[in-house]
Specification:
Blueprint lengths: L9 H5 L2 H10 L3 E3 L4 E4 L2 H9 L3 E2 L21 H8 L7 H11 L5 H24 L2 E3 H6 L1 H11 L11 H9 L8 H27 L5 H6 L6 H31 L2 H10 L2 H14 L5 E6 L3 E3 L2 E3 L4 E5 H4 L34 H18 L4 E2 L18 E3 L1
Parallel strand pairs: 2-8
Antiparallel strand pairs: 1-2, 3-5, 4-10, 5-8, 6-7, 9-10
Helix pairs in contact: 4-10, 4-12, 6-16, 8-12, 9-10, 9-12, 10-12, 12-16, 14-16
């Protein structure tokens, strides 16, 4: 199995889809020794396990590390785990429900719609700048600044704060720990970013206690059920999750479109908001930025004829599920008019992406502006993939007009 699934190989990261097809053909659950995980490649199983309460993002709400047969993380990594373990993504049961209920008000369709004019203005300005320069790096000049600015605005991080420019680097360093078997150097950077980001947010929360505004941090400050650590962890998660997927979907999506000229020409000619919305969903399916989502097995489960015991970890292969021919017709073909598209890119169950409505708004707005302002956009240089597999993207995408 190691020869098929090789997440540290540049060739595999560049195109994991043939390997996924082989995994699906071989069965429903595969043991992968290097990460001690069960790989789950089929859509039906991935979708079901995302909703299965016998699995969890954590196990510490039910077991100690020793009871679960796991080794506690090194003490030196504690700042990262304190930050990560108090965020929505890694909470279960009552704590997850309590915090999600409080934060979800910021992501209702009505609330997100109120952000639409700001998103449109920022997208128009960023794309306009790229066009005026005759091209450049789509990632750093357009795809990255928009979602970072929107989430910073929602949280209430002032533009005047010097730390605002550190949001993306902090996020990148923290998210490095979500890759498979992260190195000690990766852990060191994540710990430093966790400490620095937490210290800044603690200071900003103190300012909001004294002088509240209309932002999300001010709203959370007034909630008695939240501890300060939960507030900090929630803000970090919202920033990290609120832009990583949008950045990579924008850049990966445009690289995909530029390799499918007929599909791109049809999208440009359409001018239809409905087709654009459908196209964005297909781009999210075709090359999902989050290739894998991990869950702990809290009680014994069976996947097909494979028994997976408590204490195991499963790796739900989103990229494979989204290309499963048992669920999607002709799944390896990009079809921007694909009407039925129940992809798992935003997850499912209680951990379904809270920011999905905002991500869709940002993506459709950015794509619309690029189609409108840059009708001759083309690739200036062939990109290379980042080494990370779980959060899959490129370091830059050079384009020209």
């Amino acid at each position: 199995m190691d020869a098929v699934f090789d997440p540290w190989s540049p060739q595999f990261v560049a195109n994991p889809y043939p390997a996924y097809a082989e995994l699906r053909a071989r069965g429903r659950a595969h043991w992968f020794g290097p990460t001690r995980q069960w790989l789950i490649p089929h859509y039906e199983d991935v979708s079901a396990l995302l909703r299965d309460r016998r699995l969890g993002r954590t196990y510490t709400h039910r077991f100690t590390h020793e009871e679960f047969g796991r080794t506690p993380p090194p003490a030196a990594h504690e700042p990262f785990h304190t930050l990560n373990d108090h965020g929505l993504l890694d909470l279960e049961a009552a704590d997850h429900t309590r915090i999600r209920r409080l934060v979800s008000k910021a992501f209702t369709p009505r609330t997100v719609e109120r952000l639409a004019p700001t998103v449109r203005r920022l997208a128009a300005e960023l794309v306009g700048g790229l066009v005026a320069r005759g091209g450049g790096d789509l990632l750093s000049e357009v795809a990255e600044p928009l979602p970072v600015a929107v989430i910073a605005e929602m949280l209430g991080i002032p533009e005047s704060d010097e730390e605002r420019r550190m949001l993306r680097p902090w996020s990148a360093d923290i998210c490095g720990m979500f890759e498979l078997n992260p190195s000690e150097e990766t852990a060191r950077r994540a710990v430093r970013a966790s400490l620095d980001f937490s210290a800044y947010l603690r200071e900003l929360i103190g300012r909001r206690r004294k002088s509240p505004g209309e932002d999300l941090i001010s709203a959370l400050v007034g909630v008695e059920e939240l501890t300060e650590q939960e507030m900090i962890s929630t803000c970090v998660l919202l920033l990290n999750a609120g832009h990583e997927a949008t950045v990579n979907t924008t850049v990966n999506g445009w690289w995909t479109l530029l390799r499918h000229e007929e599909q791109l020409a049809a999208l440009r000619a359409s001018g239809s908001p409905e087709m654009l919305s459908t196209a964005v969903e297909e781009i999210l399916r075709y090359d999902t930025p989050l290739q894998m989502f991990e869950r702990w097995v809290l009680d014994d489960i069976e996947v097909g004829d494979v028994r997976i015991p408590r204490g195991s970890e499963v790796a739900l292969l989103f990229g494979s599920a989204n290309r499963d021919p048992a669920r999607f017709e002709d799944p390896d073909t990009l079809d921007l008019t694909r009407a039925e598209n129940p992809h798992v890119t935003f997850g499912a169950g209680i951990h379904y992406c809270l920011g999905a409505p905002l991500a869709r708004l940002e993506l459709t707005t950015l794509f619309a502006e690029l189609l409108r302002q840059a009708p001759t956009l083309r690739l200036a240089a062939e990109p290379r993939w980042n080494p990370g597999y779980v959060i899959r993207g490129v370091p830059e995408l050079q384009v020209q007009l």
